Amino acid sequence: MLDENHRVIPQTITESNGQYTFSGVSAGNYRVEVERQGFQKNVIAGLSVASGENQLNTQLRVGSGVETVEVTAEPVAVNSTASMVADGNRLRAVAKRPHVGAGGGIGSGSGGGIGGGTFRAGVANLDEARAMGEAAASGQELGDLFEYKLKDPVTLKKNQSALVPIAQTEIEAEKVSLWNGTTGSGRPLRGLWLKNTSPLTFDGGSFSVLENEVFAGEGLTDPIKPGERRLISYATDLGLLVEAQKNNQPQHVTRVKISKGVLTQVSELHERTLYTARNQDDAARTMVIEHPARADWQLAKGAKEPEEKASGEYRFRLEVPSKATATLPVEEVRTLATNYQLSAMEEGQIGLFVKQGTITGEMAEALKRITAQKTVVANLEEEMENRQKDIDRIVEDQGRLRENMKALRGSAEEKALLQRYTRQLDDQETQLEALRKKIQETEAQRDTANAQLEKMIGDLQIEAVM
Predict the structure, then answer these.
(1) Alpha carbon 270 to chain centroid, angstroms
(2) Within a domain: residue 396?
(3) What's the rounded Cα separation, in Å, for the pair 350 and 366?
(4) Is residue 30 one of the residues assigned to a domain?
(5) Average pLDDT score over residue span 421-445
(6) Reading across the β-sheet that carries 229-236, which strands appear in turn?
(7) What is the pLDDT of residue 444?
(8) Is residue 251 located within the same domain as residue 369?
(9) What's the rounded Cα separation, in Å, for the pair 228 and 185?
(10) Residues 6+ apart with CB under 8 A from 411
(11) I need a surface site. Which of 23, 151, 381, 458 has the fewest CB within 10 A?
(12) Using one digit for the tens of pLDDT, what is the confidence trace for 41-81?
């Protein structure tokens, strides 16, 4: 039964005769959901509950389950009660191994008993179920499927059905409280950490948990193969309150390496999550905290190891005494690498690294020698560019003189000006020859200095832990 905010108020299960009772329900509008494995879910919305006693009759339509049975002429009535149970009351009495009653009838699966649901039939209580001994069916794997076979034929009257026990066995289980931050609630869930120690596959579907023969909760699970471990949850644990706080630490460089002309700074980003669990109950709790396992993040050295790593998450165990508070710190680290080309490094960048403390003094001195050699190469290249500009200017001036000489033909000043322009051209040719020779010399010096720079960069090999 859910209130107008879709919060579950009470839950109950029917008796063997199909009757059910809700008590302590206040007057108001409610939503009732009736579910049974093998039947379609029935939802009654907008149910108005008045003060006093109220009655509501509901029906369930048969779902898609299929079961094959053998029918003989002898009529025998089978009075059956259906429910898949996990006895939470036996957790301590049987070394934390609850009895799980399982059987098969009109449930999930297909064909002649393949994959049937899990039920108990004709049993008044759990002690009686355990006294029944061996189940009436055996199972075997069929590739990714599994099959249950009845050991003895089942006789039914016309228009009747039966629920046949399939598995009645003990399996390993531990009662825990499960918390996952993705739920958005500070309350964890009651759960069972199961291990299928039986030779049978348990089919997926709904399950119910009884504590002290009283309904404690229900949930859904996928098929559990023999030897498989599974964590299932069935109700909210109102005795625990969990809080998670994250603290990101500044990124810092942990290792620096110079090799093959590249400076690599390896830095680490630390993130610490502190889980605080407050137990408000008189009984101690064993908590399982699910922490997301993110790509590129690892647990820091010295951090507590998880109980197990599932798909996309770590599972940590935390013991919380009664009326006490317990904490679980989880520290993770992410490694980042940043590369810098030595050939493109400037003096100002080296100074910044020194100020930040992200390189050693030895590295700083070596990098300064490289930048000084880069300056020598740059100065020689600048000198070559200036000489080339002088050549371009003289060549342009020679072109102007030759145009003037053409324009003087037939004039009175032709002879005197031609002699003057000719002397200027001769002087400029001498300058051009000297400039070209100087460029060749400077180019050779530049090549030598550049070779020294490349050797300095290639030979520099330093590694340090910060």
Answers:
(1) 17
(2) yes
(3) 10
(4) yes
(5) 89
(6) 229-236, 189-195, 172-180, 285-292, 313-320, 308-310
(7) 93
(8) no
(9) 29
(10) none
(11) 23
(12) 888 887 888 877 878 888 777 655 444 445 444 433 333 33
Q: Residue for token digits 């100020």?
A: 355
- Give buried/exposed letters for 123-157 (b at 16+ CB in 10 A, else e): beebeebbeeeebbbebeeeeeebbbebeeebbbe
Question: Where among 321, 342, 363 does a domain terminate?
Answer: 342
**Total residue count of the chain as it appears in this document:** 466
What angle, rounded to 10 degrees, do the helices at 414-459 and 361-407 form? 160
Task: Report whether 296 contacts 267 (CB < 8 A).
Answer: no
What is the distance between the alpha carbons of residues 328 and 315, in angstroms, rounded to a whole number?
A: 12
The verdict on 448 and 393 lying in the same domain is yes
Structure tokens given for 28: 């108001």
CB proximity list for 389: less than 8 A, separation 6 or greater: none
Note down the domain range covering 147.
Answer: 85-175+191-235
**129, 169 in Cβ contact below 8 A?**
no
For 270, counting Cβ atoms within 10 Å of its Cβ (0-12 exposed, 13-18 middle, 19+ buried), the class is middle
* pTM tops 0.90, yes or no: no
Same domain, 201 and 95: yes
From the list 81, 146, 156, 162, the residue with the least C-alpha distance to 113 is 146
How many domains does one find in the chain?
Answer: 4
